[in-house]
Amino acid sequence: MATKVSSSPAFSSPALSPRPNPPGPSGRAVPKAKALAILNATKSPAPSVASTPGDGGMDLSEKMNDEVRRQFVIGGRLGEGTYATVYAGHYRHDPTSLVAIKKIKVNADFKDGIAMDAIREIKFLSELHHPNIISLHAVFSTKDQNLSLVLEHLPAGDLEGLWKNGSISYTSADIKAWSNMLAQAVWFCHENFVLHRDIKGNNVLIAADGTLKLADFGLARSFAEPGRPMTHQVITRFYRPLELLYGARHYGGCVDIWSMGIVIAELVIREFFLPSETDIQQVHMITEIFGTPTEETWPGVSMLPNYLPIGPSGFKHPLGTSYFMQRFPLLGADGVELLRGMLTVDPAKRFTANEVLRHSYWTNAPTPTKKEMLPKAGGGLKAMGEDLKRRGGEADTGRVDKVARKLDFASMVQ
Amino acid sequence: MRLTEDDLYRTSTQYKHWSFTPSQLAAQRRTTNIQASERVKAAVARQRAQRSLLDASASESERAGSGVENGGDTPVRVDKEVNCLTVTEEKRLVDVFCARALDLGKFLKFPTEVTATGIQFLRRFYLFNSPMTYEPQTISPCAMFVANKVENHGLPLERYVAVLPNMTTDKVLAPEYLLVQGLRFNFQVRHPFNGLKGGHLEMIEMARGNANLLPNAEKTKEQLQQEMLQLPRKPNGPAQSLSVAQLEKRIENAYGFASIVLKGPAQLTDAYFLYTPSQIWFTAHLLADEPLTLFYLSAKVPTSPIHSKIISTLRSCADLLSSHSSYTTDQISKEEKVAREKKEKEEVSALIKKAKHCRDPDKIDLVKLNLAQKRDAVAGGSLEESKAKRRKLEREGYQKESDDFWGPELKKANGAKVA
Question: A 59-78 residues with CB below 8 A of B?
């Protein structure tokens, strides 16, 4: 039970003063304006300000928003996507403390006001504070009613870029270190009752010091109340577990665990593990390796709305340990066991985030590489811009279409 | 690896930005009230000055119509001042609209947490904004709609607007940025509902002799069950001897009563600002069945200074929740209730009437204000240059076309120009 400590609220209103900061170009001189406001508060108010026509003065919350906005200096554009434009930036008081500023675009197709992606991302990143989750420094809005998210500066690219970069070579110990950071991020989300629902290599960004950071919470949501349906149209296809492809509307953290398993698998084999062009093909790719699920291997599977008893190429038996040992030699026997725990088709038998972290793989040899020692590409600022601007569910690899994620707010139960 | 709920709660925006001591809360409301009053007075004075320039007689009647004022200096001297709302009246007005939002939520068949989030959004917004500046009538539909998005309920705006009288999509969305800014972009509200459910299930297990024991607990599961069966109905009452089934029924009843308290009084008072979700649900349960709740608490928290601190916190929270008029116990007779409701109704309509006279004239039409703000953004150059340029070109294009001898070109349904 949380006991309340009498905390002083984080805002420091400059004033009991009703006087708005005088409008006009002097607006940037914050300390001066503040001092003025305090001065005015003690004396009788200056009539000239109030009679400025058209300027209704600033609301307290407007003022707070302005104070937040003025903390940052916005620099050059790093990337632009359908969902957001990303700028470089830094704290005004310290030009060496860098940030990335993600300015959400107003979506003309979405008639219901502020986009769901933005609401979700702001909602969850404001609450989740963990070294392996991208941190949200602040949010502010601008006069033209755009929301800007001030995010942690992560200049070293993403996991997908890492395995695609042929000039970098890495070892089992490196894979273990990266996988562990990802597993901790996912565990923390689930511990906070948050489902990420879009885990994939290019949503896992790399900080300058080598730390991995899970990003893009545009599809995230809280765990649903038992019995309340959710959408199954989430997670970029390559990373989508079978139950979602079968149309399951009740699920938990297990969907993220599957995605995490795929991300780790890709890191090992340095190519997409289960690439496909369509949802049907994705089911096929999964069952080719993990076998066609039946009521015996996965009780309840036949009740799922889009369940196909037998795929286009007939009934498939699951591949055994030898296949995995051969395909993922860098993981070792314990790593393969963990991977198969994450990639168990029956969500009820799949590892939970907690079980993942308790696995002996992490403590067995080889010891995970210290993060300062991890190989790095230095994807640069542009790469981060590319990563952040994407909308959830989009993959921008040459081999995939832009995944049509139909998170149509109007017609779906989320 | 373990995180305690306390650890998690302390990192929440609810704890960091929306938790207060009673004096902090009062101070914030005072600040907001003072600022808003001054602004209303200044704006009204300005308007009157303008009007008196235009039409002396109109200004005359205006003065006669406004209420009395208790002094204080204004930038522009007028004979009669605006009678602004006091802090208490502002809070009362917000409370009234929170109660209406509760009804709206029921009408829309929103799940409990959607309505509750909407109400808390309203309460949070009006901590930094006055109902004199922004009428609750205009903010409330927006707050409920944003809550509907935040909680993933997914009712589309079109359908939302369709069921509300005199509502348009513009009216709902116009204050959206204003609202989220007022909420400091904190969208998550931590509710006590899930906690209550969890505690309830745990009590049921305890009653069945399956208690989840603390490390080095003094009592066994069986002992806990036995003691629980004998708990008195009322504090200091005689010991009972219930069957397990009867005890389960008792726990169910307590749960039912507690959830009503959480959906009503807990939403309509300052409970969320002053107490944590766990304190709130415990209090609701305490109000429902004191012996049971205290027994459960002592089984979870060993006797210690913390234990007594928790109890005193719960008691003060209980005072708050039970003070709300929607909190009905057996003590209040039907006639009393009817009389109280009638009196409340009269007070509220007087209050709403008073509020109408001290609205900030600059902020009445939020739809227009919203459009104006977007326009200002262009003028101020804060719109992206390319966007502004494109709009300018478009505008010039239209103007040029409309200046043509035959007027602008007609458009086909598909948007292609007539060749």
Answer: 59-62, 64-65
The Cα–Cα gap between A117 and B310 comes to: 39
* Alpha carbons B135 and B31: distance in angstroms, whole number: 18
CATH number of A32-152: 3.30.200.20
Q: Does B59 touch chain A (CB under 8 A)?
A: no
Q: What is chain B's mean pLDDT, rounded?
A: 83
Cβ of A2 and B15 within 8 Å?
yes
Q: Tell me whether residue A198 is one of the annotated catalytic residues.
A: yes
Flag if A357 and B1 touch (Cβ within 8 Å).
yes
Residue contact A16–B31, C-beta within 8 A: yes
CATH topology of domain A159-389: Transferase(Phosphotransferase); domain 1 (1.10.510)
CA distance A191 to B2: 9
Q: Where are the alpha helices (DSSP H) in A252-309?
A: 254-269, 279-290
Q: Distance between CA B289 and CA B266 in Å, rounded?
A: 17
Strand partners, B411: B417
What residue has token string 């959710």? A230
DSSP state of A101: E
Distance in Å, alpha carbon of A329 to nearest chain B alpha carbon: 29
Q: Any residues with CB less than 8 A from the CB of A136 and at least 6 apart, and which? A: A122, A125, A126, A149, A150, A151, A152
Q: Count CB neighbours of B365 within 10 A.
A: 13
Q: What is the pLDDT of residues A312-357, one digit of tens each?
A: 667 889 999 999 999 999 999 999 999 999 999 999 999 999 999 9
B201 vs A: CB within 8 A: no
- Closest chain B C-alpha to A327 CA, distance in angstroms: 31
Q: Which of A190-194, A257-261, A384-388, B40-44 has the lowest mean pLDDT?
A: A384-388
User: How distant is the Cα of A53 from the closest Cα of chain B, in angstroms?
Assistant: 8
Could you tell me which residues of A are annotated as the binding site for ATP?
103
Whether residues B309 and A3 touch (CB distance < 8 A) is answered with yes
- The interface pTM score, or ipTM, of the predicted complex is 0.81
* Domain chopping of chain A, boundaries: 32-152, 159-389
Instruction: Taking residues B254-281, report their average pLDDT.
Output: 96
